[in-house]
Amino acid sequence: MTSFSASIWTVSPFDPPTATPEQRLAVGQLLTDSHAFALPDDPPLRPELEALGLTHVSPDEAARHFVVWDGDQAVAWGSLGYSLTQNLHAAHARLIVHPDLRRQGLGRAVAEALREAAREEGRRLITLGTTSHVPAGDAFARTLGAEPALPMRQSQLDLAGLDQGLLDRWTARPEGDPYRLHLWTRVPDEFLGRMVTMMEVMNTAPKGDLEVDDWRITPEMVRAWEDMIEEAGEIRLILAAEDTRTGELMGYTETFWHPERAALVYQGATAVRPEARGQGLGKWLKAQMLRHVQAEFPGARWVRTNNAEENAAMLGINVALGFQPWASFTEWQVRLG
């Protein structure tokens, strides 16, 4: 067990870009230790990459961080991220307390700092997420006055058991099919504007009771996300379906993989335009992406994804592919008086 010296804790503002490398690494170590405690069977995180991630902020967004220090060791951390151009009423919070120091008031202290920061930034709603792999998270969220707004299912697919016959059926397209697939790690310039509008189709995904407006995406955001992914050494595959009659993108799916955590692949967004649904594009995209995962991500064993419990269509596709329930995840919201 780690030894801690402090008995009275102070919550201090923390600015990752101007902090020392040692300070950023200390917070990265806290995130790594907390992840290992919650998910001991997962490939471990790297403190250096977690530290790097602290500096990543999308265009038109800002973040405020707070840390509780015990000497040069970070024992609690919280962040408040928010847009400067949209959803100006809302902010998203993350909060981590070292596993050996929970139930000692550190979480409440950091939460109050985040709440006050949200007020200072003119926000009246804070969203946050909890997972069933940290059961105390739900109870803690309720003590903050949070309400569950969007229940989600976290599912996992064992690639060793993938039904290749199903993939064959889902990737077979009718003669004269007007759609073709593109595979990218970065969106080509000539498709960037079309990809932006395609990604905004994710606004049609269920929001539950979350009191947030649709998000708007810009080309600058897409390029910044790509740069941050590459800087972290991660590989993102994007598979997009183009209607060759119009040149419009009608669906896409994405996966994320890091060679240092090779066994685990994260399935990101999957979306099909409402007017193109019912033609098997979602199944085609998901099945073809799994074939690319198997071919291009050496060592990949598991694919993990999140879906809103009310998103019956996507859950149906995932269940048919062999995804099994792995955990539950809840998006909460706190209204500030």
UniProtKB/TrEMBL annotation:
Keyword Repeat: no
Entry-linked Pfam families: Acetyltransf_1
Alphabetized Gene3D superfamilies for the sequence: 3.40.630.30
Residues of the N-acetyltransferase domain: 14-173
GO molecular function annotation: acyltransferase activity, transferring groups other than amino-acyl groups
PROSITE patterns given in the database record: GNAT
Keyword Transmembrane helix: no
Alphabetically ordered keywords of this record: Acyltransferase, Transferase
UniProt protein name: GNAT family N-acetyltransferase
